[in-house]
Design brief:
This protein is α+β, with helices and mostly antiparallel strands. The protein has a single domain, classed as Sulfite Oxidase, Chain A, domain 2. Helix content is 17%, strand content 21%. The protein is built from nine helices and 13 strands. Strands 1, 4, 5, 8, 9, 10, 12 and 13 form an eight-stranded mixed beta sheet that branches. The chain has a five-stranded mixed beta sheet with strand order 3-2-11-6-7. A hairpin with a 4-residue loop joins β4 and β5. It is globular and about 45 Å long. The two termini are 19 Å apart.
Amino acid sequence: MATIRSSEITDHRVYLNRRTFIQGLIAAGGATLAADAAWAQRPAAHGRRLTTISSPLSTTEKPNTWEHVTTYNNFYEFGTDKSDPATHSPKFKPVQPWTVAIEGECAKPGTITLEDLLKGETLEDRVYRHRCVEAWSMVIPWVGFPLANLIKKVQPTSKAKFVEFTTLLDPSQMPGQREGVLEWPYVEGLRMDEALHPLTILAVGVYGEVLPNQNGAPLRLVVPWKYGFKGAKSIVRIRFVERQPRTSWMINWPAAYGFYSNVNPSVNHPRHSQSTEARLPSLFRTMRTQMFNGYGEQVASLYKDLDLRKNY
């Protein structure tokens, strides 16, 4: 049985401040948490601005703040606590130029730089309801381009049924990789039709700025109808394969984290219900979790013949 991880229990800072927090609620007559300081670590420094256009696929929900988005993260390469990426990633120096290996069942394999990936792309500012696996949620204004654009350029063969993503392996810069929490490097995957969906993007920024280290710099995957761990970060390889990839969390804890990882409130995590969630910075699960993270109208047809309880 897998051991419980710090990211699956109450944040340590919240635990330590629980009495003060509860007393404050009582004094305020039951008001919701208003002070963002309960979550804040050291926000990422602001980076280079990107030229963006608004996407018709964006939600109209109010986004979380830069402080929320850059201080409360899952990025196990830098540690398992939510605060670890903000603490340990500032020293990370992504190689310039950043390169991505294109491999497998495609007509145009090879190595491509991030700059080449962005040539001819009009970056779209998409605001997604991005929920992480512990049923906390945020609204994050990702900046990126459809993964489908890249896929069409490299021309997958008829044998390519899945797309596999591999992240950087660099324990000297990523202290979490010195621990045996997962098998490294981190691997994720999508079915080809999922990868081609217009909601699936390769993100290079957030809030109109280049992607901070703790959010997966310089290139990460965003699949807004799936749990956040599906979004591989610091991607260095994209491989087109015939068989379903063995993803990192499926290897580590298959009973909890299946290949599809769609947001499905009717399928419980082994240790908790997923029917409700908390929208940060609130501490309370007062929101009812929406099927497919609220994107059912756009993506439900992908799974019409699939049992989503068995294929979780």
